Amino acid sequence: MAGTGSSTYEGFSAQERAAMKAHALDQKKAARRGSAAEKAAEAERDVLAKIAEMQESDRVMAERVHAVVTAHAPALAPKLWYGMPAYASDGKVVCFFQSAEKFKARYATLGFSDLAKLDEGPMWAAGFALTEVTPEVEARIAELVKRAV
């Protein structure tokens, strides 16, 4: 493939490399655990610990998202996914919270994988920007996660 000479590939950013390393560690850690109940409890502790490490604005939103998802979609199991809090069905991520600080973004994101059953015709949203989690936002998140599973 011929290049234009004006673009250079610089590889993954430091944040992307860190996320990939975190994902590899999460996978190794999950493989070492014992029973399913122990794995689930450890995964939730890991998610809560990751949330506790976040900057205050992201932490507050992540705590609310975690509470809403676990209350309204109990079939989804908390787990870390690329170092981010995520919620999975049968081990496969359905939705996740991405802090703004992690990728130096303007806002946090509530994202949904292709497994989420949010289809609405030929086009639908799979990610939502979060700047704060108000009661109205909580209600919308609850609606989305209920539909997603």
Protein model, in words:
There is one protein chain. The chain has 149 residues and is an alpha+beta fold. The protein is 46% helix and 18% strand. The protein has helices at 14-32, 36-53, 56-72, 135-148; strands at residues 77-81, 84-89, 92-98, 108-112, 127-130. A five-stranded antiparallel sheet has the order 1-2-3-4-5. The longest helix is centred in the N-terminal third of the chain and has 19 residues, at 14-32. The radius of gyration is 17 Å and the shape is globular. It starts with 13 loop residues before the first helix and ends with a helix.
The quaternary organization reads as: single chain
The arrangement of helices and strands along the chain is: HHHEEEEEH
Q: Please state the CA-atom Rg, rounded to the nearest Å.
A: 17 Å
Shape: globular
Low-confidence spans: pLDDT under 50, at least 5 residues?
none
List keywords for this structure.
alpha+beta; 46% helix; 5 strands
In short:
With 149 residues, the protein is of the alpha+beta class. The protein has helices spanning 14-32, 36-53, 56-72, 135-148; strands spanning 77-81, 84-89, 92-98, 108-112, 127-130.
Furnish the topology, listing elements before pairings.
Elements: H1 14-32, H2 36-53, H3 56-72, E1 77-81, E2 84-89, E3 92-98, E4 108-112, E5 127-130, H4 135-148
Antiparallel strand pairs: 1-2, 2-3, 3-4, 4-5
Helix pairs in contact: 2-3, 3-4
